[in-house]
Amino acid sequence: MKRAKKKSTQRRLQSNGHIAPQSSHIATQEDDDMYQEPHRVIKIPVNQLKLSELDLKEEHTRVLTANDPNVANNITKFNYHSHCYKIDPPGGQDNLAIHLNFEGSTLRKEGAEAREQAAYYLKYKEDLAEAKKMIVEEHGKAEDENDPFENRKNQFNYSERAAQTFNNPLRERCVSTKPPKVINFSGCVTQWEIYDRYMGDYVMQIAEQELLKGQEKRGGGSGSNISDASQNTGAAKSDDMVHSQRMGNALKKIERMLNQNVDDEIFQDFKYWDDTSDAFRDGEGSLLPLWRFHTERSKRKQVTALAWNPKYPDLFSVGYGSYDFMRQGGGMICCFSLKNTSYPEYTFTTESGVMCLNFHSEHCSLLAVGCYDGVVMVYDVRNRGNRPIYSSSIRTGKHTDPVWQVQWQIEDIAKELSFFSISSDGRVANWTMSKNELKMEPVMQLKVANASNDDPEDTLLPGLAGGCCFDFNGVSEHLFIVGTEEGKIHKCSKAYSGQYLETYLGHHMAVYSIRWNPFHERIFISCSADWTVKLWDHNISTAVMSFDLGNAVGDVAWSPYSASVFAAVTSDGKVHVFDLAENKHEPLCEQKVVKRAKLTHITFNQQDPIIIVGDDRGGCNSLKLSPNLRLNHGHVNVQQQAEVLESLLASASIKPIE
Amino acid sequence: MANQAAPPAFKDLTESEYQKVVSKPVVQSCDMVPAEQANEAVEVISMAVDKHVSTGNYEAMCKIVKETMDRKYGPQWHCAIGEGFGFDVTYQQPNMIYVYYGKIGILLFKC
User: Which residue of B has its CA nearest to A182?
Assistant: First the structure.
């Protein structure tokens, strides 16, 4: 039991934090601890008086006075006056000590002081108003603005301190101008001088009037004044002998004569010379260089087109431009004549490079031109002006890519003239020369013929193949073949647009030129950048013959006199002339005609045994074919020629497709 | 053609015809550079002459011409008007005009 009690006290110690004296009364029950009630313990100091009950009841009376017990009331001080000590009277104020003295500023509203103050302010205000009034009366209203009683800007008596800047010293700068120009003038006013002057004027006036009268008379005779004026100017021009048309003609004649004299040897060669060595070598020929046609202005351009005039066998036109995409410039067309080899007869300049030319076969002065910027134009070479008579524009329709070939159509006489063009934008268009503009009529779009349909993207997006060249069949006029940039050749018809009648595979690179044989209706020839020239029968889908020339072939042309002769030019500057009747594998002649230049185009003259080749340095060389190369020249028999070629093809032994 | 026609003599013209001929100013010599300035000067001269020709007050004409030109083109203009006089002046180029009008000669220049 005792042990338990001890334990409980210990616990209380922990919980309550104060020690209950051992002696005090402690609940003996353990239950008491459970509620932990506070215990009241009365502690009595040890030294507390022990009073009896009686003492406690006794009453004590204590009286409080205002007298300060600490203040002495019997202070004695020595009095110097009376020389004796005297007791100060009690109640001296010396004992007053003031620790804090604070006067408040607040006043009670109802207090007398407040009323006094209010009255004071009222009076002050009244005085101020009165003073103001007086000032206004004295100085008028103007004084209001700078009222001395109002607050001013400068309330704080702020004064600005002046700043002094540096003054530049004056400097003298003198300019002496030129005195105005003066001139002396002297004369004499006399009545006779005045008279003479007036009379002179009068005479002039009369003369003028007479002239006008005469003109009116003449004008009445011819119908109008304007024509008369033009006659007059014409007459005036004819007076100017040096610049007259007749003088021009005479000069041209002299120029031609001079050229013939200077180049006499070449003219002799052109007319009479034949390579006699041809008689001793069989199956070989040579080319004799004649003139080189070039102008100063075409030096930096490339020959991009050549065309002989169909009516005048001595006239040909050359198109200048550039095949280089990065170096495009203006174009030029020059018409040269063999009669004047030093300077072009006609020259036209174009905004964009010329890409192709074609003379109309009947209206031989009409020249269709295709440009690099997709414009096609028609020039009348007789027109002296530099302007085409027709030009396509965006309004009338135009190609969006270079026009690679143009070709006139032979139409009925009643019909309007038209020509075809092909461009690398994949379109073949027919252009009609209507009254005042070129009308574009799309003939077909060269869709990419994808033989392999396994690529879904290709079938979804049918692109257009860039056309490079085309040629119309001479016999079936609706038929034409198109060479494309990708190397395919398509046979198309004007009747079925958008469909290929046949596709010829064989070339791997762009087909540069394609030509029907002029004697045989089935045969055509093509040349390509893949170094080959291929001969085709349009009924056979593969090439009948193929010739590898060892360089990109710029152009190929059939000869006009023999069905089996054609010539090709390559970019190494060589001309290759083939005669299939003589040699089916090798060219009869392979001759380098230009140094350090690429040959771009070739064309045969219709009459004379010469060819013209254009190079990429702006020059054209004319070459004479040696007798071996023109065996048939001069006596052309179309039927016979066709038969010759037919037999050649038969010997090639290739089966036509079913 | 002018050479072929015989120069008409004074006797060919009646008085009224002659008056008609001389009724407009004739510029004998002029080196003013803007043509407008020359035209303006001729206009000023003809205006002044028309105003005072009836009274023959050449002095007044001179005054009008000089003052008008001074106002328009800046000083200093000089004007000489008369039926017969000789002159030898130094003027500032290109500001001179020498006109006949009727029977009088007018010299206007700037210096």
Answer: B92
